[in-house]
Specification:
The protein is α+β, with helices and mostly antiparallel strands and about 110 residues long. The chain is about 55% helix and about 15% strand. The protein has 5 helices and 3 strands.
């Protein structure tokens, strides 16, 4: 999923879809300098990542954003951030803890 989000075009498509309304590929192409084929390719990547859903309606495919995978990823990243913050806090306490002086090592 993070690889899918690592592209400016795909992020722009997500931004458009984030208002919640379904968009056809033709309508998405109207908002972009890219061809419909290029947009379809980017949407396929987002669909494979579980971020975009496509539903066939008549002759066109309507695309919607599924925020659940993004929410899950955000939760996972916040959890990892908390673990790192805890580890850094423990390291800081360890470094700042007063210890008896150690004799300097000399080369002999």
């Amino acid at each position: 999923m993070f690889a899918a989000l690592g592209d400016e075009t795909r992020l722009a498509l997500i931004a458009i879809l984030s208002d919640g309304a379904p968009f056809s590929i033709a309508r998405l192409a109207e908002r972009s300098p890219l061809t419909r084929q290029a947009i379809t390719k980017h949407l396929r990547v987002l669909e494979e990542a579980g971020i975009v859903r496509r539903v066939r309606q008549g002759r066109e495919s309507l695309c919607t954003l599924d925020t659940r995978p993004l929410d899950d990823a955000g939760d996972a990243l916040r959890s990892i951030a908390r673990e790192w913050e805890d580890a850094l806090h423990r390291l800081k306490r360890f470094v700042e803890e007063e210890r008896p002086s150690q004799p300097a090592l000399t080369r002999g």
